[in-house]
Each structure stands twice: as structure tokens, then as C-alpha cells.
Write a structure and sequence with these properties.
single chain; eight-stranded antiparallel sheet; 1 helix; five-stranded antiparallel sheet
Length: 262
């Protein structure tokens, strides 16, 4: 048999094998237990931006934010509060960041209806690496008396790490995230030299303790890295049918090379 015929047969066999592989399903990467313990957080504390912070959302409007195509952000803004407009799509910061400390406040509407992932769903993407939902997501949603897979509830690193506790306040009350994000680094060939790391507090409760991310967020399949540099911070306009959530008091402190692990 000619070598070209052998190659054709091998390629055909490989194609058939690929077709025989089942398509990855979202359910394949959902984890339902153990369920994080419910912890009642302390009273809300107003955290003002420190002197070296970049204020991303305060009283000044949406000037620090843009739509994914670079046009002005299309979300509603009133009295320091920004509310998701699902038709307008995701928004991201006009500035790009490496490693940083971030404070963010968000609120699920009182009286919200729906269940599971369909109730108050959004997401904080620590680094927006492309259009759509490309990047690394810390989940935002209503996890107050709302069952879903634990690596998809509020304060999870979506599809990677469940939170250490469920520290949700009831809908209608303001929630806080305080995050330390250590951006991944890559060599000149695009290989990871240090993976991304994340520590997060939800309403003052430690929920992610210096976790090492396996890669960017994926809805299906396993996470993986794609080389990138400093990136915008992104907020998600999720397509679930529930009422949209709101944000306020977002600020970031950039961290220098000393924050990188050695």
C-alpha cells in the first residue's frame, strides 16, 4: 500500500474518532457538593477609596467604562448607582490593569424571582481577554436561599472553585467583594510562567484563599490559558430573565511587581 494511502486512512480514522467523542456539556463541569456553609455577614461597612485608588465607579458617571466595541457604556446610571442593561451587553474598563486590589459593591433587586443560575446573574471578570465572556470570572448572582451548583454560586471562581462560605445578604441589600488579583505571566512563546491567583472576601468573609487558577473561565470543557498582558476589568450582562442587578463604589489599587509570587 502506498504511503499516501496509509496517511489518508490514518487521517480518516482520526476524523472518525473525533466525531465519536461526545461533545462537552456544561453539566460535565458542575459541582454540587459539598455545599458551602451559610455564614451571616456582619453589618455593611462603607469602604471609601484609599488615596492611591483609581475610582472606577463613584459619583462621576460611567466615563471609566465602555461597551465591548469601545463605544460609551450603555448601562443606566443614577445617583452613583449603575444598573445592568442586558440589551446593551457586557461593559469593561477603558483602562487595562495587571495585578490589583479591587473593591466592588453590587445589589440584587428586592423581590427578585427565578431560581438557580437564572436569578440575579452577572459576573466580575478580573481580566477581560477578549469579546463576550473571555477572561477570568468571579461569579455574581443571588445565592440567598437559592440552590445551584457550588462552583457557580456567588463568590465562586466560576467552574473552578466554590466559595469557602455562602456569605450572601438578602436581595435588596448591598453586597461587597474585596479581591486581590495576581495576574498570570507568560514567556515570549506564550507559555505560563506564573498562573493567576485570587483571594476574595464576600461581605467581609474570606471566600477564596489564594487560589491558583487553571486558566480562563469556560462554560464547557476545561479552562486553559491564552497569553495576554494587562487587561480591562469586565462586568457581565447575563442573559437570564431575572431583573438586572446594580453596582456602586468600585475602585482599584494597582499592585507592582512585588505582588508577584517568587
Amino acid at each position: 500500500m502506498r504511503k499516501s494511502h496509509v496517511m489518508t486512512i490514518l487521517l480518516a480514522a482520526a476524523a472518525l474518532a473525533a466525531l465519536a467523542q461526545p461533545e462537552a456539556r456544561p453539566e460535565d463541569t458542575e459541582v454540587w457538593s459539598p455545599v458551602p456553609a451559610v455564614v451571616t455577614p456582619g453589618a455593611y461597612v462603607d469602604v471609601a477609596p484609599p488615596s492611591d485608588a483609581v475610582v472606577l465607579l463613584g459619583s462621576q458617571g460611567l466615563g471609566e467604562w465602555a461597551a465591548m466595541d469601545g463605544k460609551p457604556a450603555g448601562w443606566a446610571f443614577k445617583d452613583g448607582v449603575m444598573t445592568v442593561d442586558k440589551k446593551a451587553g457586557n461593559i469593561q474598563t477603558r483602562r487595562s490593569f495587571g495585578s490589583y486590589q479591587l473593591h466592588l459593591e453590587w445589589r440584587v433587586p428586592a423581590g427578585i424571582v427565578g431560581e438557580g443560575q437564572g436569578r440575579g446573574n452577572s459576573g466580575l471578570f478580573m481580566a477581560s481577554t477578549g469579546g463576550g465572556d473571555a477572561g477570568y470570572e468571579l461569579q455574581i448572582m443571588d445565592s440567598f436561599n437559592n440552590k445551584t451548583y457550588v462552583n457557580g454560586q456567588a463568590a465562586s471562581v466560576y467552574k473552578q472553585f466554590p466559595p469557602l462560605a455562602n456569605a450572601m445578604r438578602p436581595p435588596g441589600q448591598w453586597q461587597t467583594y474585596d479581591v486581590v488579583w495576581i495576574a498570570p505571566t507568560f514567556d515570549s512563546n506564550g507559555a505560563v510562567t506564573s498562573p493567576a491567583r485570587l483571594t476574595a472576601f464576600h461581605n467581609g468573609v474570606l471566600v477564596q484563599n489564594d487560589v491558583v487558577l487553571a486558566g480562563e473561565t469556560t462554560y464547557r470543557g476545561k479552562p486553559e490559558y491564552h497569553a495576554h498582558g494587562p487587561s480591562p476589568i469586565k462586568l457581565q450582562a447575563h442573559g437570564d430573565p431575572s431583573a438586572p442587578i446594580s453596582f456602586r463604589n468600585i475602585w482599584v489599587r494597582e499592585l507592582g511587581p512585588a505582588a508577584q509570587p517568587h
